[in-house]
Amino acid sequence: MHRLLAALLAATACASVAQAQEPPPAEAGQSFTLDRALELAGAVSPSLEAASADMRAAEAGRRVAALRPNPSVTVEAENVAGSGPYRGIDRLETTSSLTLPIELGGKRSARIAVADARTDRAAIQAAITQADLRLSVIRAYAEAAAAERRLVTARDQVRIASEALRAAQVRVQAGRASPIEVQRADVARVNAEAALVREERAVEVARYSLSRIVGQPITGQLDAGWFTGVAAGYGPLRPIESSGTLALAAAEADLAIATAGVRLARSQRMPDLTLGAGARRFEDTNDTAAIFSLSIPLPLFNNGRAALSQASAERQRAEAQRRVTALDVDQAIARAQADAANAATSAATASGPALAAAEDAARIARIGYREGKFGQLDLLDAERTLAETRAAAIDALLSYHIAQAQLERLTARAPTTQGENP
């Protein structure tokens, strides 16, 4: 456990240094990969810094819990500042004593158990924060890559619309078509150019969002090969249990904290002792006598039963919440598997056979239109089908990467904590 904490704290310290030194931006023309984005995001993420602070606070809380009660020193003066023979300090008698609280009922070990459970929970939360950051980076990177793909498609659509307009003008000038075909082609070109402007803005927004996460401007091109890659072999859902996942580990850590809280509340019912020892000096005879004391509180009004009932109820709630979390995680993993498999199938189909067929149909329609074998409506329909298929392919790829990242997040394994060590 302590090795895990040291490693995570060291990683965060390195991240803070990297943040202070401002990592160098990617050179123009170089591909800005997902691994590079994850590396930069980990170096500048405030959420990881906050998780590191939580872990340090939990470690400090563990040291505080192990401390014993402080002793007290008491000095008393008697027979002074009175009346008659006690007016001055001739009859002054002093008493000095040292009192030491003695904790009974295992209070110290119970506090340490609570602190250990909270330290384990902080370590799991740090892993959750890291997994959430990875999911955010992958999502932002995939959205930016999809925006760039849509921009490429929009530019190609402008080129196609311009070529269709020139073909329509040639046909009209040759007297083989009505002038309305030029108007239709011009409308298609204007719409394509407007779509291109929208996609350019979308790329700017997506790259800006990604740059905010990684902490620097995105100057290079994104990895198009990663975006178009789809894992093969998706079949029936794999039985992945929720045990060992981050979500269930967090619920179990909360249960461990509540269980330790019950033990602490039970130990608080045992009254503590306060032992004292001192010396008294008598002014008349200049003699000294030892003094011993024993103090025991009487639990007349607060016997700790209400606090124990509260802690027991909180433990029952944590236990029930752990069972609910196990069910939710199992269902979420099953849904994420199905979403990833469906998205992979859609992406492979839309970017494979369906896209090839749409491109071939559009190519044939363009040739046939120029040669007068097909009408303009046939050409426009083929081009619209191609544009829709390309958009569907990009959307399917984006859905696949997000679903895959979500599945990876749900099935991420929790780190080994102190309570799990043999």
Secondary-structure map with pairings?
Layout: H1 2-21, E1 31-32, H2 34-44, H3 46-65, E2 72-78, E3 93-102, H4 107-173, H5 180-214, E4 221-222, H6 224-228, H7 246-267, E5 273-282, E6 287-295, H8 305-350, H9 353-370, H10 376-410
Parallel strand pairs: 1-4
Antiparallel strand pairs: 2-3, 3-5, 5-6
Description:
The protein is α+β, with helices and mostly antiparallel strands. 66% of the residues lie in helices and 9% in strands. It has helices at 2-21, 34-44, 46-65, 107-173, 180-214, 224-228, 246-267, 305-350, 353-370, 376-410; strands at residues 31-32, 72-78, 93-102, 221-222, 273-282, 287-295. The strands form two sheets. A four-stranded antiparallel β-sheet has the order 2-3-5-6, with no helix packed on it. It has a two-stranded parallel ribbon with strand order 1-4. Helix 4 (107-173) runs antiparallel to helix 5 (180-214). It is elongated, with a radius of gyration of 37 Å.
Query: What is the topology, as strand order, of the major beta sheet?
Result: 2-3-5-6
Termini separation comes to 11 Å
The parts where pLDDT drops under 50 for at least 5 residues are 1-28
Total E-strand runs: 6
The main sheet comes to: 4 strands, antiparallel
Summed up, what is this model?
This protein is of the alpha+beta class.
Which features does this protein show?
single chain, four-stranded antiparallel beta sheet, two-stranded parallel sheet, 422 residues, alpha+beta, 10 helices, 6 strands, disordered N terminus, 66% helix
